[in-house]
Specification:
Its cofactor is Mg(2+). This protein is of the alpha+beta class. It has 43 helices and 17 strands. It folds into four domains: 212 residues, Beta Polymerase, domain 2; 147 residues, Nucleotidyltransferases  domain 2 (Four Helix Bundle (Hemerythrin (Met), subunit A)), CATH 1.20.120; 206 residues, Orthogonal Bundle (cca-adding enzyme, domain 2), CATH 1.10.3090.10; 195 residues, no CATH class. Helix 3 packs antiparallel against helix 4, helix 15 packs across helix 16 and helix 33 runs antiparallel to helix 34.
């Protein structure tokens, strides 16, 4: 518990923030005037006027605090200033309440109180939008006076618009409730006397220490760690999410608070620096704690000021302005916002390191509960420690690898790599003391160690382990060893990519990709489909792991990261022990690692030219196998819900369509056989149909449909179409939600015509629905079967499906001509600020197809974009033969296979220029009203 503390550095200028003396004079005069009028309800009138005047002063104080924060950059100092502002307002309101509203010239012992700041406010640190948590501590014997004063203070604070958490209790009640409720116990742990009866506060302090804290350290630590685990499940387990929660996310302020609560409870300290004397932190680690705290408070205070509310998530739309406020500058290859977020993630990593250090110290004291399995193992063994036969420098301590002594890394710096190899080989967790020593020993990893054959052999074994390479690599990265041993990897540690596509930092994405590759190899995830099959066929798994590990290694450089990454691979692969031939393959895979995904999602796979062009890139079957697996791992590691059955099916189709070309005509599974197999599987799933009906239905779809649509969707389509036709409906729609991908799929079955896609896109835009994907196909009898993926808007499935029904109704009315789309779209779409900028590009190519001109449009995605593009193509008298719509975060990539009205390719430079100009106008438009 704390008494009110004020920083000397904030004392001198504080009157500019809040001049309590001048305010006291002004408000006293106000009170005397209002009460002197003697009107009924004058006390209520006085409270209202006090609140209004103090609210103005409070807001002015916040503006001054923001200005000072912009000047000195100290987040902790800002939080101290805001806390002190709150202290003095409460002190002043209390003075006025007891002087003018509830005066007691000769108070009895029952008419004493202490006002105590608790919880976050008790620390003496507040963000602009923090709650104010206060405890009115009253004697055992109470009178109405205490409750009346508390009520008057609360009404003024509430009328000021403040969020106040409050309790009115005696010391006995505080102790009793703290024993029963861990939240109240934690809140009282931070108690700080604001004003009033010191004897009451001292009694609470003594009773809390004696009756609550003493002998309960293990219970408290277990509760706080469990609470942290629950919180991280809600906020996101990774500390490398690209839109982190500054307060509750992993590596955020709440983690630091939890550390300090535990330290304060267990070690009975009041300041971080006292943990050095207790042997928990070194002086350098205590300095890191204070540096992390100051940075996170700075970010949180800026975030609240910028958002104008208690916003805790560093969302994309705030990150760029946050970077500017914090003074980050752009460097070649890295935007200012990316440099800011990299700093943020490095701080989050430091917070994780500090958490491990405190956990280790608690285990040494036996204040942290050891997992039950570890306790059982310890009892079964004669000795809790045993040596590893591969190296005398390491021991196993309760199933965790540890150093035999503190000089293990100094004796042999290669041990800094060996410890991770041994942990992976034996499935051991890492002892926090070993990781702490490894972090302190990073300077031992020099060029000699990096080039040592044994060190590189060990690293390659870690990377390609069949056990859990992702876990070991992540710990290696968190300890700083990975970035030190592979400096090129060190450059992308904690680097975020300022886009909505990637959910993680670059280093975390690469490590997760290795984890996905390991799952593919084991066949753990059936949804990875073809990749699981091919992983059992490849001849050299090592080069595939190296390629996955390095595929984004050159992110953040001015040049194309695929080309630069291939150059990095040519340097690193020989060091890792790969042959010249394997090095060439790895470099090629990195240079082409985006190609297969791009072709599969944005090209017409039934067009022979698409396949021939892709085959000329991959050249042989073995490379294509590697590329398919790498592509799967890359997409799946981007973020939750990015990988789906449709992408799996597209990659499978591209692979099998290209296979006969690269093998010179020989195909392990030729196209006709694959179509027949897909149709047979469909027959198997629909056994209740009679043979004639199912034959007729199968004949309605082109071969490409059976290859590019997964069986589950084929069955859903069939039932939907038959139900629509049974009802005599020429136009029908159906919808389903996909929680994993955060989308709603809307399928439309209608007579095909050239402007169908434009009408569907316009109807979606008019309903405020945002299209992120589209699968478009036609039947042999002239019907269109289009599935549109829309961004989900509502949390509950039933609400989202009702919304989908309204969108479907808009589509049907648009197709029947009941509503005029241009006018409706113009009314619905408005200008809005954008967090991202994407350079618009329009490419027309006649060599990508034998029959069509291919138009590829890339730019910033927004509601109504697809409608604007398709309307423009229609206005230019172009027929859309097929369209391939994809969204990669904020970037839309839409590809249209078009002809002129006579069915011919679009020829002539002037015609191409006119089309390009018209589409660029759509991409540049602030809203679709300009494009409609």
């Amino acid at each position: 518990m704390n008494e009110i503390r004020r920083s000397r550095r904030t004392e001198t200028p504080f009157k500019e923030l809040f001049d309590i003396d001048a305010m006291r004079v002004e408000l006293s005069a106000l009170a005397e005037r209002v009460l002197g009028e003697g009107k009924a309800g004058s006390e209520i009138e006085l409270r209202g006027q006090l609140a209004r005047r103090l609210k103005v002063a409070y807001q002015a104080g916040h503006k001054t605090a923001e200005r000072w924060l912009m000047q000195d950059g100290s987040g902790r100092r800002c939080a101290e200033r805001l806390s002190r502002l709150q202290d003095e307002i409460i002190q002043l309101v209390h003075e006025l309440a007891v002087k003018y509203l509830y005066r007691s010239d000769n108070p009895s012992t029952a008419e004493h109180m202490a006002i105590v700041a608790v919880g976050g406010y008790g620390r003496g640190l507040m963000a602009p939008g923090s709650d104010t948590d206060i405890l009115f501590l009253l004697p055992y014997k109470q009178t109405a006076w205490g409750e009346s004063v508390a009520e008057a203070i609360l009404y003024v604070l509430w009328d000021m618009g403040l969020k106040v958490g409050h309790a009115t209790r005696s010391v006995d009640e505080c102790v009793r409730q703290a024993r029963a409720d861990m939240t109240i116990r934690t809140s009282l742990l931070e108690a700080r006397l604001l004003l009033g009866e010191r004897a009451l506060f001292d009694e609470l302090t003594a009773r809390f220490d004696r009756d609550v804290v003493e002998g309960t350290a293990v219970e408290f630590v277990a509760a706080k760690l469990a609470e942290r685990e629950d919180r991280l499940k809600r906020a996101g387990q990774s500390r490398y999410l690209v839109e982190p929660n500054v307060k509750d996310g992993k590596g955020g302020l709440r983690d630091l608070h939890t550390l300090f609560w535990i330290a304060k409870y267990v070690y009975r300290v009041h300041e971080t620096r006292q943990l050095v004397a207790k042997g928990v932190f070194t002086a350098e680690e205590a300095k890191i704690f204070r540096r992390c705290e100051d940075f996170l408070w700075s970010v949180r205070c800026h975030l609240h000021f910028l958002a104008g509310k208690p916003e805790e998530r560093l969302s994309f739309d705030l990150q760029r302005e946050m970077a500017e406020r914090l003074g980050y500058l752009e460097h070649p290859g890295l935007q200012d916002v990316e440099r800011f977020m990299k700093h943020y993630f490095l701080v989050a990593k430091d917070v994780g390191d500090l958490t491990a250090i405190v956990s280790a110290a608690l285990e040494e004291r036996h204040d942290k509960p050891v997992p039950r399995l570890n306790r059982m193992i310890a009892r079964l063994r004669r000795s809790p420690n045993r040596k590893l036969k591969e190296s005398a420098d390491f021991i196993v301590d309760h199933d965790r690898i540890n150093v035999a002594d503190s000089s293990a890394f100094g004796r042999d710096p290669i041990n800094l790599v060996r410890i991770f190899q041994l942990a992976g080989k034996h499935g051991l967790a890492f002892h926090p003391e070993a990781m702490r020593l490894a972090t302190r020993s990073l300077k031992l990893i020099d060029q000699r160690v990096r080039e040592h054959p044994e060190a590189n052999r060990l690293f390659l074994e870690i990377l390609t382990s069949r056990n859990a390479p992702e876990i070991v690599l992540r710990r290696m990265n968190e300890a700083g060893v990975l970035g030190r041993f592979v400096p090129e990897f060190g450059r992308i540690v904690a680097m975020m990519q300022f886009n909505m596509y990637h959910s993680y930092t670059v280093d975390e994405h690469l490590i997760r990709a290795i984890g996905v590759l390991s799952q593919i190899e084991r066949g753990d995830r059936p949804e990875f489909g073809l990749a699981n099959e091919l992983a059992q066929q490849i001849k050299n798994r090592q080069l595939l792991y190296v390629a996955v590990f390095l595929h984004d290694i050159a992110k953040g450089r001015p040049e194309d990261h695929s080309i630069a990454g291939a150059r990095v691979a040519r340097k690193l692969c020989p060091r890792f022990g790969l042959s010249a031939s394997d090095t060439d393959t790895v470099a090629w895979l990195i240079e082409q690692h985006l190609t297969m995904s791009s072709v599969a999602q944005s090209r017409d796979l039934s067009d022979r030219k698409t396949i021939e062009n892709f085959a000329s890139v991959v050249q042989n079957l073995e490379r294509m196998k590697h590329l398919e697996i790498l592509t799967t791992a890359d997409i799946a590691a981007v973020g939750p819900g990015v990988w789906n059955n449709w992408k799996s099916q597209l990659l499978r189709t591209l692979y099998y369509e290209t296979e006969p070309v690269v093998t010179g005509g020989f195909s392990e599974t030729n196209r006709a056989r694959r179509v027949a197999r897909a149709q047979a599987e469909f027959r198997e799933a629909e056994q209740e149909w009679d043979a004639e009906a199912i034959d007729a239905y199968i004949a309605r779809h082109y071969p490409s449909y059976w290859l590019q649509t997964d069986r589950e969707q084929q069955v859903a389509h069939a039932r939907f179409i038959l139900a629509a036709e049974a009802q005599g409906r020429a136009l029908a729609t159906t919808a389903k939600t996909d929680v994993t991908r955060g989308i709603t799929e809307l399928t439309v079955f209608a007579p095909d015509h050239p402007r169908l896609l434009a009408v569907i896109a316009g109807a979606c835009a008019s309903s405020g629905a945002h299209i992120v994907d589209a699968q478009i196909s036609t039947t042999t009898d002239g019907r269109a079967l289009d599935t549109i993926a829309l961004t989900r808007s509502l949390e509950r499935d039933e609400d989202e499906l009702r919304r989908a029904g309204r969108i479907a109704s808009a589509i049907e009315k648009s197709l029947s001509g009941e509503i005029r789309l241009p006018e409706v779209v113009a009314r619905k779409l408005t200008k809005r600020p954008r967090a991202f900028t994407v350079e618009p590009e329009v490419t027309l190519n006649n060599s990508w197809s034998n029959r069509h001109t291919v138009i590829e449009v890339s730019g910033l995605d927004r509601p109504g974009l697809l409608y604007g593009l398709t309307q423009t193509l229609s206005r230019l008298n172009l027929n859309i033969a097929s369209a391939h719509v994809a969204t990669f975060g904020e970037r839309a990539v839409d590809v249209f296979y078009v002809t002129d009205l006579m069915g011919a390719k679009i020829l002539g430079a002037a015609r191409h220029s006119a089309i390009r100009r018209a589409l660029l106008q759509v991409l540049d438009a602030d809203d679709e009203a300009n494009a409609a």
